[in-house]
Design goal:
Elements: E1 2-11, E2 14-24, E3 29-33, H1 40-47, E4 55-60, E5 63-64, H2 70-75, E6 78-81, H3 93-99, H4 108-121, H5 123-127, H6 138-150, E7 156-160, H7 168-183, E8 187-191, H8 195-201, E9 204-209, E10 212-217, H9 219-223, H10 226-233
Parallel strand pairs: 3-8, 3-9, 6-7, 7-8
Antiparallel strand pairs: 1-2, 1-4, 4-5, 9-10
Helix pairs in contact: 3-6
Length: 235
């Protein structure tokens, strides 16, 4: 579904990604672990077309994405839910969600069906659809951000730190929603600092350090790895 082949990315002279080899297969939920600055967000920026790799290629279903615009990449089914939500706070919940369907704006019937799916996943958003997004709680804003990404009809959903700054109970709700999205057939690439919660729902995981993949494997193997436990999970 999504493959990064020897992808490198620079910001000026700083090398943010160094020959990344990464794959998300159909139906998988894959987790990226790593400290701040390890390269997780840079992978998402490159995959979504917001940054152009300096080397390597990015493909989806054997179709090259490297060099395409972000709107083209969304049409191909690769959709980013960014860190920090990036909502339009003065706009309503419904308006924010509708913006996620911009590349499909001519398919009104399809967008209406997708909106109903988002409201089924996050019922609170249906009751608050006319409310300004900025007036919602942090957890509800994260639901809007995820819902907006789902309106783009992703085949692969890129989720960048969805639990950041949320209370434990809300984190649990968000992770339950992510599991439902994945079980419904959407592949997910999830960057998450809450390593224990992320590995519990993952099929596979990669550990990034300094823009390189330092380790990869099953959630079980990584949770049993002493270095991973010490750095990301704790005793």
């Amino acid at each position: 579904m999504l493959k990064l082949d020897a992808v490198s990315l620079h910001y000026g002279t700083f090398r943010a990604l160094d020959t990344i080899q990464l794959e998300v297969r159909a139906g998988e939920l894959v987790v990226l672990l790593g400290a701040n600055g390890a390269g997780k967000s840079s992978i998402f920026l490159a995959a979504s077309g917001l940054r152009t790799p300096t080397a390597g290629s990015i493909t989806s279903q054997d179709e090259k994405l490297t060099g395409r615009s972000t709107s083209e990449i969304v049409r191909k089914g690769i959709v980013l839910c960014p860190e920090g939500r990036k909502l339009f706070p003065q706009m309503s919940v419904l308006q924010n969600l509708t913006l996620g369907a911009y590349v499909h704006r001519r398919d009104r019937a399809g967008n209406k069906r997708k909106l109903m799916e988002v409201f089924d996943l996050f019922p609170i958003l249906a009751s608050r659809s006319s409310q300004a997004a900025g007036s919602l709680s942090g957890g509800q804003q994260q639901m809007v951000a995820i819902g907006r990404a789902l309106m783009g009809r992703p085949k692969v959903l890129l989720l960048d730190e969805p639990s950041l700054g949320l209370a434990p109970l809300v984190v649990k709700q968000v992770f339950e929603a992510i599991k439902k999205i994945n079980k419904a057939g959407t592949s997910v690439l999830l960057a998450e600092q809450n390593a224990f919660a992320a590995l519990k729902i993952a099929d596979r995981a990669y550990v990034l350090e300094g823009g390189r993949i330092a380790m990869q494997g099953s959630p079980q193997s990584l949770m049993q790895n002493a270095a991973v436990r010490e750095a990301y999970i704790g005793a």
